[in-house]
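Form 7-S
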Amino acid sequence: MQRRLCSAILVLEAIVLGLSTLVLVNATSMNKAWGLSLGLGLCVVCLLTSGLLRFRWAYSIGWLLQVVAIVLAVESLTLGFLGVIFLILWVTAVRLGARIEHDRAAWEAASSESR
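Output:
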């Protein structure tokens, strides 16, 4: 369940980063080529990481993506605000997913003992 929740957050973040690339390029003083490569690169990394969450090390990349999304506040406060929102969603997905997996394992152990 944790993998599903975190994957959904990363896919949504990829969509938002892809769409916010237009804002990053047009509404800030950032070089257009640099802005496009940064925004679309982050979008691609989010999608790739979403697919790699079956490996524990991919969660570290997910955490790094959240930090990078917040650092975008240097160029646009709106993007930084979105980064904070996705950090909150990421933390919630990681914690809630782990809790659901723990509770499910406990329930399955209890039900197998009662048989």
